[in-house]
Specification:
By secondary structure, the chain is mainly α. It has one domain. 71% of the residues lie in helices and 0% in strands. Helix 2 packs antiparallel against helix 3.
């Protein structure tokens, strides 16, 4: 139901959603490797921007289930890590 409503948005296509999701995922990866908790920019709005990037990733995967990012995230080792991630965290 949600996928149907999102795909009905005017001007939106799976290709655009997949492209923006891929760019957002790359931005999140860059932030993961370059930022630390003591950077003042994180607490002056950057954290909110990163949350929006995560929302774009989720939107892209929902709107383009056959897209590049969806296929990457369904890679078997990543799916397994997702299933046991809380145990790995502990």
């Amino acid at each position: 139901m949600l996928r149907r409503r999102l795909s009905d948005w005017p001007g939106e296509s799976g290709r655009i959603a997949d492209s923006t999701a891929l760019a957002a995922a790359l931005a999140l990866a860059l932030a993961w490797f370059t930022l630390d908790g003591s950077d003042p920019a994180v607490y002056r709005g950057l954290l909110f921007g990163l949350a929006l990037m995560a929302a774009l990733v989720i939107r892209g995967v929902v709107m383009a289930p056959a897209g590049v990012l969806s296929r990457v995230l369904t890679f078997a080792p990543l799916r397994f890590l997702g299933q046991v991630s809380y145990g790995v965290y502990l």
